[in-house]
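Chapter summary example.
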Amino acid sequence: MASQRSKYDTQTERRESRLGIYYKWMALSNTTLGGLMAGIDTSILLISLPAIFNGLGINALGAGNSDLLLWLLMGYTISSSIFLLTIGRLSDMFGRVRIYNFGFLIFAIASTMLYVSSLYVSGTAGAMSLIILRILQGIGGSFLMANSAAILTDAFPKEERGKAIGINQIAVVGGSLIGLIIGGILSAIDWHLIFLVSVPVGIVGTVWAYLGLHEIATLDPTRKFDLIGNITFAAGVLLVLIGLTYLIIPSSGTSYAYLFVIAGALFMAVFAYLEMHAEHPMFSLGLFRIRAFAAGNMSQFLAGIARGGMQFLIIIWLQGIWLPLHGISFEQAPLHAAIAMLPLTIGFLLTGPISGFLSDKFGTRVFKTTGMLINCGGFMLMALLPTNFNYYAFAPIIFLLGAGQGMFSSPNATSIMNSVPPERRGVASGMRVTFLNLSNMFSIVIFFTLLTAGIAAQLPSAIYNGLVAQNVSAHVAKNISELPTSTALFAALLGSNPMKTLIPANTLASLPQQKQQQIIGLSFFPNLISAPFQSGLRLVMYFSAFIAFIAAAASMVKGSRYIND
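The structure predicted for these 565 residues follows.
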């Protein structure tokens, strides 16, 4: 096998010399741009939702509008996850650069249409238009994410791959962190700019990709396309992700959500059975016999579960509790939340490139394991913070969480891509990103479940007693206290004071002016939810610390050379 690897690396060097010494940097710069934009678009709406719904003229907390909120938020991730493995397989057959370039074109077209739609279509029709175009944009993004690491692995010699893939991973994962900041800033200026930001990048990246990238990969066009395998896999992932999405808001289709998850799991079981007996499988399960590939994906999946929902949780914490308690209005909270989360992004951007560079020299295990142990410690420290924390204690902790994530991500991606045969890099890259997306979705659902479980025991009595203390009738207070916990959490996510919406206008008008101002003021709702939120927060953080520790253990598994399958 060593001779095969050496032969392939020699072929890569010869191809590079024909294309020019700078081709590998051309590949790195373009895939990094594509990965950055794809990453930004996974999160830019998360913090921009209040401005978007206000701009569309929709009350996101109104009856029947929770589905619009969910699909606008999750449609991109769902559509990109469904096609990742299929795209990886097609890339191994017909060319990674060809498929990547086509994805950039789809991404550019969808981005342009999103901006135009945001300008001219409003109301429910506007939200539906944005959802459909975000799904199309997610499909284009999946072409980019599925092929970036494979293109770089082809273009760079082994001793430089950690650095190259590290930079690319910083762009993809860092983009999801930067997207929060960009979304917060742009939504405060003009919400239409949230959709405009992708347009120039999409157009320039598409032209650049078609002119600058060339196919140097070892392809496998002899294998036939596994249609049944692709259909069963796509159906399984789609059903699981839809089910997980609706589990986020228990009041919105919970009974169907579990059926979706179960049906998706059955499709995945059928997929696994078919793949084991197919002549030309969509994904060779034999790759999991490679220890580095199996351990790398396992540790990545666990790491994703440990931290994937962290952005959600911190945004709710900042926008719904901490910032209002420090005098920031609910409407201004998204921008300030983005600024407050800067240490998380800085920590990631600092350690990611360094760990990728050093892993070329010293191996990946020490960096992967250390990164997850840092995350484990960071989660434990986060659990000790009071709800109304001192920012100078909060900032170093989220910096550590970002640094641990950066230290883990780059070396782990490198170890996975180095472990597989050259002709399997496309599908391996697609599987890696699929596991990452699935783990993030599972994490969000688990975080919300644990958070609501911790909050639910205390929140009803806190709301009831707080309203009665302000002379609200016991009957009205009881009705409001029975609101689903998820409604309070999503009100915080949307930068909204739920007291203005939940208390009947005639009830509010009947109260003395001082009581009215107290109830709809900045501190009333945050004070009501603070103690219950603290209970849920600790539950989530202890869970994340435990999962991060297991991910660290999985990262210590020694790798092996790739094998023919």
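To summarize the output: The radius of gyration is 24 Å.
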